[in-house]
Structure formats: C-alpha cells, structure tokens
Design goal:
The chain is mainly beta. The relative contact order is 0.13.
Length: about 425
C-alpha cells in the first residue's frame, strides 16, 4: 500500500499542545448537529492577502470526495488506494498514526471514497461506495464488523455508487439499503446485527445523507430517497410521513422519477428544507405536529443546490445553485417565504459552504478558491479569498472548522490552516 507523505509548514509551539485538551470536535458529516454550523468564535474576520497560515499538509489520503472528522485529538478521513477503501488516522500535529483498509471502494464513475466517517464511542462508521457499512475500531484501525447492505437486501446501486455519511445514535447506526421493505436499515452499532428495516418502504436511494431530529417529542430520521423525503421512527423503522419530491419540484426539471439529490436536508421549527439539482429546485415542507402528514410551504425553482449543500443563518438560506454542469451561482433565499434575495456569479460554478463566527466559508468547486464571505441577504460580500494549492480532481470535499483550524481536503491531499484570532 502507498503511504502518506507529510509536509510540516510551521513548528509546533507549547500553546498548540494546550489547545489539544480543549479541541472542539467535528465528529461527523456537517458537524455535531449535521447543519454545517460551527459554534466556534474568535476566528479571523479577514485573512492575510496570500492565505491564512498553513500549519501543515498531508498527501497520501487516497482518491476521494469525503471530508474529515475530528474527534478526541485525532483526524479521520477516508480515501481509495488501489481500489480499496482506506481510513487514515492523523494526529493534530499532522503525523499519520495509521492507515488501514476497510473494504472495496468506488472505482467507476468519479472514483474514490464518498463517505465521511462518523466517530462514535471508539469506532468509525463508514459507508463505502459499493454499499458496505463498516465499523472500524479507531484505536487499532481493525474492522469490527461489515455488511454489504445492497447485496443483503437486493438494492440497486446507482451509476455513481453510494455517497451517504451514516447517522449513529444511542446503540444504532442507520443507513441506506435500497431494497424490498428495506430502503433504510438500522444495525446494532456494536455487533452489526439488524435491528429493523423500513417495512413497506422499498424506494431506491439518493446521494444525500440523513439527519436526526426531535419533532414534538418524537425522534425521527429524515432522509431523502430517490423520489421522496421521508421521516422514519428510529425505534421501529415505521414510516411516519412521506412527501414526494415531485410535489415541490419544477415540472420543467428532470422528469425521470429520480432527482440525484446530494444535499443534506435542513430541519428548523417543524419544517424541512430540501433541494435537488438539474433545474428541479427546492422546497420547504412543514411536518404536522403528530408527524403523520406534510404540506409544502413554498417552492423555489432557482435554488437547486447540488454537491455543496446550504446553511441556514438568521432566517436566510445560503448556498450555490446548479445552472448547468459547467455553471452555477451563489444565492440567498428567505427561509420563511422562499423568496430569492440575490443570485451572484462567482468563479463560474457552484461549491460548498460552511458557517462559523458570523462568517460564511465558500469553496468554489471549479477552480478551488476558498472565500470568507459576510452573510448579507442583500449581496454576496467577499472579504478574503485564496486558492487551494494541493490535490487534484474536483473540489467537492466540504470545508471543516475545528479548534480554530480550517481543514480543506482536495483529492489525495489534506491542508490545515490557522484561522484563530490571536489577540
């Protein structure tokens, strides 16, 4: 197996080691609450002209589009080397602790790992592109258990494989299976034994990752499938509600019954925001208090977010839409009404977005520029920007902030920037 190569950019100081104790974890896809809102403060409001200071970089992660998880003083990231999925464990000083294989990975269209590892109770939970859910011991890197959900339940893999980052809660881990009476499956997180499947729900998968919410006292998993959005009772797998995507999508969009949804849904105040690309647009769904029915509050056919997702800040949704495979625009829409506040062209295409300390972090997927942007509903207000110097292929990995550090993964490379205010 190829091994990672590290480039240390600055010397570590005593103050750095003090920070290790108080590290603010980002243990799964889109952070602790899966909303891509970072709670950290005291971050830079403007960057140096060239870029924030790069603390270190690390190459050898393998091919992939997943991003990093940070937990208990270590960084975890998936990749693909020689058609095998590898999980890398890296110290906060940039030194590789180990790199272990976990399963086969997706070596067909847009080859590489998709799933961001979910770190929970000493384990990393990963969904491979070919559909293996894997539990890895993060102390040793050894696989504790693994199940190919698509083979087990007869689900159909898409042309681009599985791109889900799984949810873990209490003693269960939830993931796609796409099979008969098994669109979604819950496994015992310790043993890999099946706890439940979604009886009566046999819909195929999307490329989105689910969220776990509590709605009027009932915990439920909200997931976007091939043609609908669903709420699942986490106790028994019962389908609480189901809203067809076609009910809020643009009739002039792609009308083949599937919508290639990649963006993670957003839940707020009893409502769910869902967006899909290819001119299908977006919508806000209100869930009834008893979680049995839904209604579409509004539709916005412009805000068809693709890979990069969106964030909800002060009542406004920010993100980038899909105009074509070569073009996109950065937008702001009102979460209450669905009204478009602005649409702005920046670097020709869309990208991913993160919020922290009253600023947006926007990562343009076409040319790999990261920008610090004020969340202003009237304009796309860039304060600072820099170009990512390492890596190759598409800039689809989402940025992460943990303990005053900005993590950017680009293909085989991981770069870490210091964005902590020093005064």
């Amino acid at each position: 197996m190829k091994t990672a190569k590290i480039t240390t950019i600055v010397l570590l100081t005593a103050s750095f080691f003090v920070q290790l104790t108080f590290a603010k974890d980002w243990p799964q896809w889109h952070g602790p609450n899966r909303d891509n809102l970072c709670a950290e403060t005291n971050l830079l409001k403007e960057w140096p002209q060239e870029a924030p200071e790069m603390l270190w970089s690390l190459e050898g992660m393998g091919a992939g589009y997943s991003t990093v998880s940070v937990a208990d003083g270590f960084i975890y990231v998936t990749g693909m080397i020689d058609k095998r999925g590898v999980l890398s464990k890296v110290g906060l000083d940039g030194k590789l602790v180990w790199q272990k294989q976990y399963s086969g990975e997706w070596y067909k269209s847009f080859r590489g790992a998709r799933s961001t590892p979910t770190i929970n109770d000493g384990c990393a939970y990963i969904m491979s592109g070919p559909g293996d859910i894997v539990c890895v011991d993060i102390e040793t890197g050894q696989v504790k258990w693994s199940v190919n959900t698509f083979k087990k339940y007869g689900g159909k893999l898409t042309y681009w494989g599985v791109a889900e980052s799984v949810v873990v809660d209490d003693e269960k881990v939830y993931c796609f299976a796409g099979g008969e009476d098994a669109s979604i499956v819950a496994f015992d997180k310790n043993t890999g034994d099946v706890v439940w499947t979604t009886k009566g729900l046999s819909e195929g998968i999307s490329f989105s990752s689910p969220i776990l919410v509590e709605h009027h006292g009932k915990k439920q998993l909200i997931s976007v499938l091939a043609a609908s959005v669903v709420g699942i009772d986490i106790q028994d797998g019962k389908v609480l509600w189901k809203c067809p995507n076609a009910s809020f999508h643009n009739p002039d969009g792609r009308a083949d019954g599937t919508y290639a949804t990649t963006a993670t849904p957003i839940y707020r105040d009893g409502c769910v925001f869902v967006a899909t690309p290819y001119n299908n647009g977006a919508g806000k769904i209100r869930i009834s208090d008893d979680s049995t029915t839904t209604e579409v509050v509004w539709k916005n056919h412009e805000f068809d977010v693709f890979h990069g997702g969106s964030v909800l800040v002060d009542g406004m949704l920010y993100g980038a839409n899909w105009i074509s495979d070569a073009k996109g625009g950065w937008m702001c829409i009102d979460f209450e009404t669905g009204k478009t506040m602005y649409s702005h062209s920046w670097n020709g295409k869309s990208g991913s977005i993160l919020y922290a300390d009253k600023m947006l972090y926007c990562y343009a997927e076409k040319i790999g520029v990261v920008a610090l942007v004020k969340p202003d509903p009237e304009k796309f207000a860039i304060v600072s920007s820099f170009k990512v110097p390492l890596g190759s292929k598409e800039h689809w990995s989402h940025p992460v902030i943990s303990d005053g550090r900005l993590y950017i993964r680009h293909g085989d490379a991981l770069m870490v920037y210091d964005i902590q205010r020093k005064e």
